[in-house]
Structures are given as C-alpha cells and as structure tokens.
Amino acid sequence: GGSIAIRGRLLWFDADPAEEGEGQAVRYVADGLVVVDNGIIRQVGEASVLLPRLRSETPVVDHRPHLVMPGFIDPHLHMPQTQVIASYGTELMEWLAKYTFPEENRYGDPAVAADGSRFLIDELLASGTTTAGVYCTTHPESVDAFFTEAARRSLRMVAGKVMMDRGAPPALLDTAEIGYQQSKALIRKWHGKGRLDYAITPRFAPTSSDVQLEACEALAVEHPELHIQTHLSENAAEIAFVREAFPWSKDYTEVYERFGLVRPKALFGHCIHLSERERAALAGKGATAVFCPTSNLFLGSGLFDLAAARAAGIKVGLATDIGGGTSYSMLRTAAEAYKVLALQGQKLPAFDAFHMLTAGNAAAMGLDNRIGRIAPGLEADLVVLDTGSTSALRRRMGRVETLEEELFALMTLGDERATVATYAHGHRVYDRSATRAKPLPP
Ligand code: GUN
Ligand code: FE
C-alpha cells in the first residue's frame, strides 16, 4: 500500500525497436519521475513537471544519476537447479541423468524447497529480475514453497509442477493421473492468488508418455487462460530420442501440436534445431520460443537462429535457463545472446536487447498488459541500474557518447553488481547499499 515517487533516468520501450524503429520505440526521460500508488504506476514524466504536483506526504526516492527501467523478466528457469549450475562436462541428456535428476529428487522435502526458493528469489531480485517463468519439481511441495516465497515478496511469478512419468529415477516420476490431479489442486490453490499464475509444465516430450501428454491436453482445455511451459528441440540426442519415442510424429513440434500444447502463452525453451515447418507451426499458433544463450553455450546445444524465428513471425523471449544457464543476470544473458548471434552473422543492438529483457519478454509471456513498461496502470516493478558499477564499466563510460553506447557497454560488461535497487509492486525488494552494509558472517 501507500505512495512512493521514484526519480532517475527513465528508460522503457513502447514498441519493439526491431519492428517500429528506435524513434517510435525508445522512451527516455533524462530527469524523470514515476509516481506509484498501491503498487500501480499512476504517473510518469518529467520530474520538473510532476514534482510540484506531488502530494506532500509522498516520499521521493532520488536515484539520479542511475537508470530506472521496468524490472527484468526471465521467461525460463528451474528453481531446483541453483546447486546444479556449473556442473562439469556433459551435454543435455547426460547432464539431466547425472546431475539434475538426483538434485531435483531432494525437493520433495519442504525445507529444501523453501531454502532453494528463498535463495533463487534473492538472487533474481539482486539481478533486477522481478518476474520469471519457473519450473519447480514433480513434487507439489516444491510449488507450494516457491509460490509462498514469491507471495512474501509481492512478486508477479509464473510457475508450475513438472509433469514427468518416464525417463527419470522412479522417485521423481508422477503418472498421467497423479500429475493431472496434483496440477489441478495446485491451480485451485495458487492460480490468480495475488500476482501468481500457474503454468502447466510437462518437462519435455522425452519424459512424458502419450497418456501423460493427453492429461496435459485435458488441463490445457480446461484452463485456456494458463501458461504452458516445456522444452523443444534443444539438442541432437534429445531430438533423436523423440523421433524414436513418437514414431507417428513427423517432427518434435508435432508431438506438442497433437496434444493441443502449441498455443498463445505456451513457452518453448530453446527451439534451436527447428525446421521451417516447425517455425511456421509455432508462429501460426501464437506460441513463444525462448532463447537461452548461456545454457545453449554451456551445454553445447547449438546457436539459436533469431533471424529465422523473427522471419517466421514467432514471438521470442530471452531467458537464463538456470541451472543449464550459467548466470542469474539478464545483463549477462543479453551479452551472451549478442555473441551467439555474432557467431551467425546476426546483430543484437542494445535497444533491442533491453526491449527483450522488459517489454519483449512481457509480450512473449502474454503479460504485457501488466508489466514490462513504465506506463500508468501497469504494475510498479522496476530496476535501478548503475552503469558505472565496476572499474571496467566506469573506464568504458569515459569514452561513451550516446545512450545506446552506454546501454551496450552495460549489457556487455555489467552484471548483478549494476543493480542499485529493485522494486516489486511498489515495494523496495532489493537495496544494494543495504546488502553491502551487511556484516560478514562469523
Ligand atoms: N530439457 C528437459 N529438462 C531440462 C532442463 O532441466 N534443462 C534444460 N536446459 N533442458 C531441459
Ligand atoms: Fe530449461
């Protein structure tokens, strides 16, 4: 509750700079003010215009000379993988079997799930990420733990129980019927509570039988408003496995199409090795492909072809994929996206990158009516960024002349140390100076 006004260099995107051009898309107010009331943005504009009209009791937080942007959005990550990140030497299928499944098996313990959720959310907020698309584990307790922690910080979050009825250790499996019932109960318990949304979450085709995918279809039909999240076409061995397991399907994407899982607000992680037919199917059905560059590099999965996805008309998100991914920071993620595209002769201008981290990811998740821009009526999720947070950045800034150059240096050299403060629903949920002042543990 209550009011607050935040002053700084405001930056957000009213359109996609790749489509509309910078002039239409980029909104920058060098000395701006955001007025927030009960968690909602009420006014945005020049500080010189808005300050004299502000109610005297409204506190003003002056973040000048720092940038104030919409909170970053991370459309694909795994809550139970904070202790899998940086596991050595494997690619996808072996990485799952050797490191990830044994670790996820611990998350049936509510204390483990609570600890993992607290750590993850601390890390996201310190990186300026205020919304994420989150995979929990097959255990309903892991979803309870994550949503409990997200609600405690008043965050907008999308999460779901992983459904997986084969191809993993028995203790981690549900069944088509149990997965359906547990998902139903979690939807009733959590979906639409505060800012929490439930996502139907079959892990990926290799770990679901036809019968389980039919159960997912039933959930999807019964809940057309829900997100769906899964993985698609990440790795050659995975694709070969799907070809064997679903001999009736002409390609990987058709498996999900057959069960009604390709639709708006369906988020497909990776989408690296798609055919033109598959791209057209995703685009035609309004689904989203999620580019996870640090994960794709770390697991050696391949290079996401952004130009082909855009040409096909697919909505694209950009995500960390913790813990296949190697950084919680969306700045690091944008930097690695730039390099993945550079290897393919493609470009990622800074304005496009910051659009993707904010309004672009909001649209990719179907949440653009709530978050992703600094505009009246939207929820007050904001990140305050210091473009001189390290000596390397400060040194580079000495020769930077334009906002675009400044942003490109920020994404290329920056990380969580650039986060000065993070606001969610108008509350300050991260404060760098408070973190720094904390005494060291004994
Ligand atoms: N495919 C199925 N499960 C996973 C996962 O946990 N991480 C990644 N990167 N890919 C997957
Ligand atoms: Fe993933």
Automatic annotation (TrEMBL):
Q: Taxonomic lineage per UniProt?
A: Bacteria, Pseudomonadati, Pseudomonadota, Alphaproteobacteria, Hyphomicrobiales
Keywords (A to Z) from UniProt = Hydrolase, Metal-binding, Zinc
Give a yes or no for keyword Signal in this entry: no
Q: What is this protein called?
A: Guanine deaminase
> Which gene is this protein's source?
guaD
User: Could you tell me what the cofactor note in this record states?
Assistant: Binds 1 zinc ion per subunit.
Identify the species of origin.
Aurantimonas marianensis
Record has Phosphoprotein as a keyword: no
Name the domain of life.
Bacteria
Residue intervals of the Amidohydrolase-related domain: 67-426
